[in-house]
Design a protein that fits this description.
By secondary structure, this protein is of the alpha/beta class. The chain has helices at residues 10-21, 63-71, 98-103, 109-124, 130-133, 136-144, 146-161, 170-179, 191-204, 253-259, 266-272, 345-359, 382-387, 413-426, and strands at 2-6, 25-29, 41-42, 51-52, 58-59, 77-80, 83-88, 91-94, 184-187, 208-210, 213-221, 224-231, 240-244, 246-249, 277-287, 295-300, 309-312, 326-334, 365-378, 398-400. The mean pLDDT is 96. Residues 10-359 form the Amine oxidase domain.
Length: 427
């Protein structure tokens, strides 16, 4: 069959790999000049490794991506144990181990023991539908206590989900604790090196990858899909079209609704429109000294600091691969109308600088990069659970394989690989 995959991220590429193995004729449409989606990377003149536009790592128990990398002959993931911490009222505390929790000074001993018991239970617990019937805030307040919610969790949820913080279902926190591991992995050369290897393997099996191609409409007539697309940045607005037997969309649902509206009935569209996303803003700073001393990941649990987290990439990966500069991500999830989505890089830096100086007053910025991504984080509320689409849609031979399908787990490359394989098996 002739199969179109819209989106050349890791899900789309994995799906293409398995579908070409089955003998299908596969075409991938990717808007960017490189494949990889949220895991795609970039280079500057003095780097010899790619850096992801949005921070990435894998966990030691991410078996789907590790098994897939072995299958395609990519044996270049390595693991280390970088330090993660949280910032509370200008004080930094490690949060990696049970011992860290016992030493945490902002909770009483009974509160720490209670929180530790709940975390241990969630770590070994299977998924229960009960977790979808309660919000995470209510679940954590009832099990750990109000003070543990306020100190440990409330600001984390507010920084990640904004005004939706107290509406997120408890299945999210179950999955977050269930999956987390101390050892973190990274591919030699960056995730773009891994992605380029998948691309090479997929093309060698006959796939056609159309980079810089934006799909603008999908129609279906007498069992055949027509994909309308145009070249990104082309002077001419002339559209091209191509016919397919099957379409797999890896696009965020709001985009699919726009380009495929003619395919769905009104009830299904109204259901999909209830899926809410936040956007991501990632400021990447190259500095002469690290902003964070030793810490890789710092969650900002201070409501007075308008930053979700700081990820000191070069406390995880050696700075020699990035011209000996120290690399840090300053990250936020925001609504589409947030000022950060409109602001130029210089304005974002100036707004953040006073807060970064609290952590290190002496660093100087050598270079900087700003990336903004629409539809980067689905909101896992009860409306999401009720309305999220399935992989198989009401339209015959149209499949959805996007971020929403990783629920209850947060987005990640491991689940992107799992989803790509899963949808390929369904076709």
């Amino acid at each position: 069959m002739k199969i179109a995959i819209i989106g050349g991220g890791i899900t789309g590429l994995t799906s293409a790999f398995y579908l070409t193995q089955k003998g299908h004729e596969v075409t991938i449409f990717e808007r960017e000049n490189l494949c990889g989606g949220l895991a795609s990377g970039f280079l500057t003149n003095n780097w010899n490794w790619h850096l992801e536009r949005t921070y990435h790592h894998i966990f030691s128990n991410d078996n789907d991506i590790l098994q897939f990398s072995k299958k395609i002959g990519f044996d270049e993931f390595f693991f280390t144990s970088p330090q993660t911490s949280s910032l509370y009222n200008s004080r930094t505390f490690p949060v990696d181990t049970p011992q860290d929790l016992l030493n945490f000074p902002l909770l009483s001993v009974p509160e720490k023991l209670r929180a530790g018991i709940v975390i241990a239970f969630l770590k070994i617990s299977p998924f229960f539908s009960y977790y979808e019937k309660k919000t995470a805030s209510k679940f954590l307040k009832e099990t750990m206590g109000d003070q543990a919610w306020i100190i440990l969790w409330e600001e984390l949820f507010r920084k990640k989900f904004g005004k939706y913080a107290e509406k997120i279902v408890a299945s999210f926190i179950w999955a977050r604790i269930k999956k987390r591991s101390k050892n973190l992995g990274y591919p030699t050369g960056g995730f773009q090196n891994f992605i380029n290897h998948i691309v090479k393997q997929t093309i060698s099996r006959g796939a056609d990858i159309k980079n810089n191609c934006s799909v603008t409409r999908i129609d279906k007539h007498r069992g055949t899909f027509t994909i309308y697309y145009s070249e990104v940045g082309a002077i001419s607005n002339r559209f091209q079209k191509k016919e397919f037997d099957v379409v797999i969309s890896t696009l965020p649902t709001p985009i699919l609704v726009k380009i495929g509206e003619s395919l769905f009935d009104r009830g299904y569209i109204e259901r999909l429109k209830k899926i809410i996303y936040l956007s991501a803003v990632n400021l990447i700073l190259e500095t002469n000294t690290p902003i964070l001393n030793k810490v890789y990941w710092l969650s900002i649990c201070d409501k007075n600091i308008p930053i979700m987290c700081i990820v000191q990439h070069t406390n995880f990966i050696d700075k020699k691969h990035y011209g000996n500069n120290h690399i840090s991500y300053v990250a936020n999830y925001v609504e589409e109308n947030n000022w950060r989505m409109r602001a130029p890089k210089e304005e974002v830096i100036s707004k953040y600088l006073q807060y970064l100086r609290i952590l290190n007053a002496k660093f100087s910025i050598q270079n900087s990069h700003l990336f903004k991504v629409l539809y980067a984080q689905p909101i896992f509320n009860k409306e999401f659970v009720k309305n999220k689409p399935e992989i198989i849609t009401p339209v015959h031979n149209l499949y959805i394989a996007n971020l929403e399908m990783t629920y209850p787990y947060d987005r990640g490359t491991n689940f992107a690989v799992r989803l790509g394989k899963q949808v390929a098996e369904m076709v």
